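Input chain follows. Return structure tokens only.
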Amino acid sequence: MKQKYLFSFGMLICGTLGVCAQSSIVASGGDYSVAQGATVAVTVGQPAVETFSESSGSVLLGIQQDFSDVEFAIATKPIPNITVELGQSKDINLTDYFVSNGMLAYSATSSDNDIVKPIVNGTMLSFELSEIGTARIIVVAVASDGQRFPASFTVTVEESEPVTDATKEHLIVLYGNACTLLNMEYDRKNENINLEHQILYDLTEQAKDVLLSTSATNKEVEFLNSQLEQSMSNYIRLLQPTAIYDVVTDVKIMVKGHTVCISNIQGKHVAILDITGKKIYSCHNAESIEAIVNVAGTYIVMVGEVRKTIVIK
């Protein structure tokens, strides 16, 4: 007769049960480690002999049994409570919280659908937010043999903070700088550059949608700003040559450590801006310039109509 063993501990569990909550669950031998508060359920062909010992604040679980015939195993960890602004979206991948060696079907209910309505699509859980308030969500993972494994957490919906002028202006500057970067020539055979180019392009499309939106929240725009800054820095590091030369205007820009060397034969106005668009250096009518930039980061060098992006490391 098949027997099921359910182990639930409030501390680290180590052993040779063939269960690994950190990656995947296998049906036979191997070590497993389950995070604090996790539950491990195992169905085996014959009874197991269990021995327990404490060591360094952990519980060591020794199983004197060959588990090569494990029929079903699942490890679960708590789903954290969520706070989200009205108008924002939030998705949860349920496989991050239910790890199994078998197929699971998921369902979800809310204590108040007028505030939060859960929507399950395969292994993804999303929410339809309607009102300010808090609702408790119960997710149930159902195994092929009918076993049910519930998890509970709360979703709190807060009033969204309108986008501030400063946050929106920052996004406008970043959007313009990102578009400039995307229009620069690059080595299309370089897979890393191609990948970063696509990431930056996708973010600029998101930025365009947000700038046109009337429902974007301040947190949403701030988060997008940080993503754009990071993506631009990553992309520029891949593009950065030893020197930038513009044939039309005879402008040459070189970076030597923290020094930006500019050959400006036509004596046009020179400015260096940080990634937010703030001017940190300005000069008129100088043909040869060496500007010291003390802080590492991404900068924009403007020489007349020439606009180039550099990285100080």
